[in-house]
What we know:
Structural class: mainly alpha
Largest sheet: none
Mean pLDDT: 90
Helix content: 55-70%
Number of helices: 4
Low-confidence stretches: none
Radius of gyration: 14 Å
Distance between the termini: 44 Å
Shape: flat
Amino acid sequence: MTELLRKQQLEWFDSGTPGTPLAIFHERVDSLTPAEGGAILDFFVTLQETHGADFPFGELEIAVDRYWVRYRAFMGN
């Protein structure tokens, strides 16, 4: 049951329909500078390395792979 609800929630989230979390997310972060995106990626990578066990469903890895990996060249700048 939990897995089904999680799957449905992710499908809705990923739909990009106006007002969904994904659409709101893009409204807020698509205008970040490369340096800002790199700083966020640095934070998530560090958080994953130090507290990854606190995210048993791989939430940090998913976030990095889906939204932040494009800033890898700007990490540490």
